[in-house]
Amino acid sequence: MASSDEPKIDAAVSKEEVEKAKAEIAEEADDYEDTVDGEAGAASGEFDVTKEEMSIIRAELACEFPDDYNYLSDAYVKSVASKPYSKDPTKRRPLEYTMEKLTHVMEWREQAGAPEFENLVKLANGPPSSPEAVENPEKLTKAKALATSLNNASLYWHGFTKEGKPVLWIRCGRKPWYPNVEAEVNALILIADAGIRCMPKGITDFVVISDSYSPPPPVPTFMINVLKALVRGYPDRLNVLLSAPVSSIIQFVMNLLLPLMPGRLSGKFLLKDVDDARKIMTEWLMHGEDDIPTFFGGKADHDQYYPEESYSTIKGQGNLKFDYFGMIERLQASAKEWEESQKK
After folding, report:
1. Which residue blocks in the chain are alpha helix, DSSP H?
2. Strand 238-244's sheet: what is its strand order?
3. d(Cα 49, Cα 77) in Å, to the nearest integer?
4. Rounded Cα–Cα distance for residues 234 and 127 (Å)
5. Are 161 and 286 in contact (CB under 8 A)?
């Protein structure tokens, strides 16, 4: 059955589309290969960054991006600034070089509209008769599309690893067959930013676990846009992605994306069967086996918080069904629990 599907899948992407994506991603690949990997202070070969230098970086970011500069935590900024200089690994990166890298991330966020996405969620959750909705119907349309992409609960944060990294869960079987690509990418950016804001002090990266059972047919435009967002906007955020089970569609997705990825990113994807994935989750998750969700044969019931859309209800006065703000509250509580566990 899988072999008969594959020709149809392969026909979904053109050589021109792949080559264009390669060229766009290559522009940012150097930044990805040269950025940090993991928690601040954890990697070898780091240099000291003084308080005065941190103040200079912070001041420049605040000047250039006054509405969004707090998005970058001190741990993140320091992790970028403390790395060896690619042109001379015996020296630390010059401050100008660090600022260039940080500026690339912030400019991408500005271009993508990332700082405004949570406001769009609030707009979608409010009454369509609100002054903002009435005065800006295009913005309301964008907000509703974002809420619609959230409502299938195919992407959410829940819990932490033993190392304090938040866990982003992907439910592939809930993804739409014919997605609104722009809205889906915007939803991913919104969710990613929410998790980053909830990270415990000193943590700069996250873990992704994908329930890859029964995924929809791949949409190359969406997949390539997600990869570009990861490379340009989150070059040092992904610690590892675990996907199970492996299917012909997942293999196709990886065969498409791997040649486009910077080398260091491609090594962060683990494709496993369910039994192996359960063993890995037991090792990774904060409460071990107790944190394995029911859709992987465990005891943790995620669906009580993130049910399929048909079982969800409107949260406010608009079209938002996904419990976005409850997700943040639960993640903040889990972060506090992890931080308290480190004091024992």
Report:
1. 2-10, 15-33, 51-64, 74-81, 95-112, 117-125, 131-135, 137-151, 181-197, 220-233, 248-257, 263-266, 274-284, 324-341
2. 155-160, 166-171, 206-211, 238-244, 269-271
3. 10
4. 33
5. yes
Instruction: Kindly state the DSSP code that residue 330 receives in the 8-state scheme.
Output: H
Q: Is 48 exposed, middle or buried (0-12, 13-18, 19+ CB in 10 A)?
A: exposed
- Cα dihedral sign, 63-189-250-180: negative
Tokens of 246: 């492996």
pLDDT at 219: 83
Residue 109: per-residue pLDDT: 96
Residues 53 and 81 sit within 8 Å (Cβ to Cβ): yes
Rounded Cα distance, 270 and 240, in Å? 8
Per-residue model confidence (pLDDT) at position 117: 98
32, 265 Cβ separation under 8 angstroms: yes
Residue 80: both structure tokens together: 């970028």
Question: How long is the chain?
Answer: 344
Distance CA 301, CA 292 (A): 9
> What pLDDT does 14 receive?
67
Regions of the chain where pLDDT drops below 70: 1-14, 17, 24, 26-45
Q: Give the residue carrying structure tokens 């020709």.
A: 7
pLDDT at 10: 45
Residue identified by tokens 């980053």 is 196
Q: Give the pLDDT confidence of 268-309 residue by residue, as tens digits.
A: 999 999 999 999 999 999 999 999 999 999 999 999 999 999
Structure tokens at 139: 């913005």
pLDDT value of residue 34: 52
Distance, first Cα to last Cα, the chain? 53
